[in-house]
């Protein structure tokens, strides 16, 4: 059945899979590896969305790490996340119970949306979650519900604070979304390091040097060698500014949530080859509620700003991603023979493949 959905791409040895066929295949891999339907379904949605939108560093490349993390006993494959009793009206708490963050987010999302609509602002605090995915999926879901959103989480210590030379902060992703009526939402999502760690790993696999300014080696010297970078430390984007935002994320989504900072997450895990367990903070805001009683619609004023950006020939963040999404819907998702072979192997061998 899966094979019937595969169309051979015309021009090369790549294989084009429909989004649905890739979803089916990835979900089958996680089910074979022993994940329950909530875990397998939610992480498949995040991974396939990444591959569909040409975000290779958080697409199917992440399957192997997720399987390794499960095999090592560092992610609970059958976890059922739990919505905790509410003790503050604007704070929605979900315990991921050691499973992946994605099903915990999916559980908390409808409650977060309902509270933000009712009160103007609400936050989702996820604890005890194994995290590896891109955050745009989450702020986009809020934007689809008409809400602005912020999402952030620590990771494990791989980034030196600006002026330092040893890993302390995580690559700490930070995402923002703003709803638009006639267009896909305004969304940005980035690591607070110069690049996501996944990018360094992809450079290593491809035998490519890193751009200058991404990393330092174990002696604190600038390096473009991915291997030396992985053994040294990554650098924050924008120097002291990115370093401060990365620190803020350690505070808000680590210390404030009563969960682990990136240093603590790495100490607990003992390696950067598996995915870390920590918390995540997602904040939802209702633009209408904040703008009530003030002149003008926040949405029309936002559109004027976006138009002014585009008028200068600049592009909006996520524009590349939305174009890639359209292409994937039209032509399917192109995978290399190596990627196809790897998916087949994971499907056949389950956790024995890693
Ligand atoms: P990128 O540098 O690839 O992209 C950052 C953002 O900037 C994107 O929204 C991108 O939009 C936008 N952008 C890029 N170029 C331009 C431009 N010229 N003009 C306007 N906007 C632009 O992101 P990173 O490599 O830093 O991060 C990649 C992913 O890694 C993120 O999704 C992040 O969540 C994830 N991550 C996850 C971690 C975790 O622990 N779970 C840790 C670190 C990162 P577009 O996509 O359209 O190009
Ligand atoms: O790409 O930096 C990254 C990353 C770390 C954990 C998950 N993704």
From TrEMBL:
It holds the Pfam family Ldh_2. It is an enzyme of class 1 (oxidoreductase). The keyword Manganese does not apply. InterPro entries: Mal/L-sulf/L-lact_DH-like_ah, Mal/L-sulf/L-lact_DH-like_NADP, Mal/L-sulfo/L-lacto_DH-like_sf, Malate/L-lactate_DH-like. Its EC number is 1.1.1.-. Keywords: Oxidoreductase. Belongs to the LDH2/MDH2 oxidoreductase family. This is Putative enzyme. It comes from Mesorhizobium plurifarium. The lineage of its organism: Bacteria, Pseudomonadati, Pseudomonadota, Alphaproteobacteria, Hyphomicrobiales.
């Amino acid at each position: 059945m899966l094979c019937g959905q595969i169309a051979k791409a015309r021009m090369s040895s790549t294989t084009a899979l429909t989004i649905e066929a890739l979803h089916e295949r990835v979900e089958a891999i996680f089910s074979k590896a022993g994940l329950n339907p909530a875990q397998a379904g939610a992480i498949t949605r995040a991974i396939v969305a990444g591959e569909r939108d040409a975000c290779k560093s958080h697409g199917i490349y992440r399957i192997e790490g997720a399987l390794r993390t499960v095999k090592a006993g560092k992610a609970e494959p059958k976890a059922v996340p739990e919505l905790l009793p509410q003790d503050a009206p604007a704070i929605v708490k979900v315990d991921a119970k050691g499973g992946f963050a994605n099903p915990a987010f999916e559980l908390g999302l409808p409650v977060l949306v309902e509270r933000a609509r009712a009160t103007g602002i609400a936050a989702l605090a996820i604890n005890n979650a194994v995290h590896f995915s891109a955050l745009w999926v989450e702020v986009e879901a809020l934007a689809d519900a008409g809400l602005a959103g912020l999402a952030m989480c620590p990771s494990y210590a791989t980034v030196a604070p600006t002026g330092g030379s040893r890993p302390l902060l995580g690559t700490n992703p930070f995402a923002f979304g703003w709803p638009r009526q006639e267009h896909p939402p305004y969304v940005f999502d980035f690591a607070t390091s110069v690049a996501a760690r996944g990018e360094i790993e992809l450079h290593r696999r491809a035998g490519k040097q890193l751009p200058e300014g991404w990393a330092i080696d174990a002696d604190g010297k600038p390096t473009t060698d991915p291997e030396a970078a992985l053994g040294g430390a990554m650098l924050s984007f924008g120097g002291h500014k990115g370093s401060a935002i990365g620190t803020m994320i350690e505070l808000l989504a680590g210390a404030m949530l009563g969960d682990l900072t990136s240093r603590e997450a790495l100490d607990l895990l003992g390696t950067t080859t598996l995915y870390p367990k920590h918390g995540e903070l997602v904040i939802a805001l209702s633009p209408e509620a904040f703008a009530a009683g003030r002149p003008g619609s926040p949405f029309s004023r936002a559109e004027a700003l976006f138009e002014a950006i585009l008028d200068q020939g600049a592009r909006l963040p996520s524009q590349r991603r939305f174009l890639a999404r359209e292409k994937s819907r039209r032509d399917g998702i192109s995978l290399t023979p190596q990627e196809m072979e790897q998916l087949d192997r994971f499907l056949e061998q389950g956790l024995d493949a890693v």
